[in-house]
What does this fold into?
Amino acid sequence: MYENDIASVLISEDQIKQRTKELAETIATRYPVGAPEGDLLLIGVLKGAIFFMTDFARALPIPTQMEFMAVSSYGSSTSSSGVVRILKDLDKDIAGRNVLIVEDIIDSGLTLSWLMRNLSSRNPASLEVVTLLRKPEAVKVDVHVADVGFDIPDEFVVGYGLDYDERYRDLPYIGTLDPKVYTG
Ligand code: 5GP
Ligand code: MG
Ligand code: MG
It folds into this structure.
């Protein structure tokens, strides 16, 4: 459907599925079922993390609850400034809960770093991050990310939730765009 716009498939549907299962099984072992903190609370960051969030939640062999936040970082469309605005906040209090942020991609890490500080101030029992993708820049930022699906090169990617101008989120794999898409 978007074949003419995609330059290459970076991560296939099968690779995403396999890695998501591995991450889910590893992460589940850290959260004992029936803990006083209640079910693990997944916080998905809209919109990019939607598909990873739903596939990851279903791959986790423990009960979870799901909440969503939408944030927008000021800056150009391809780089973020670290100044973040909440477009949609959580509906529920997270105090005393085990919280796991589910992210699509960490690039500069500025958005995540802000989000971690914001959510920490709400006093969760624990706060961790799982991200499907991570770019090389992200390693410079002082945010502890225990679990990463794939380390990818510093290229602009789309698909599986990630957009270019709101398009391509519905691709089932992660791919790179043909430059003609940017240049029109
Ligand atoms: P950071 O604050 O880590 O630089 O930015 C993270 C956000 O930038 C992601 O949640 C995503 O919205 C956007 N982003 C960063 N790299 C890419 C990319 O390669 N493709 C797409 N579609 N979005 C990206
Ligand atoms: Mg994101
Ligand atoms: Mg985007």
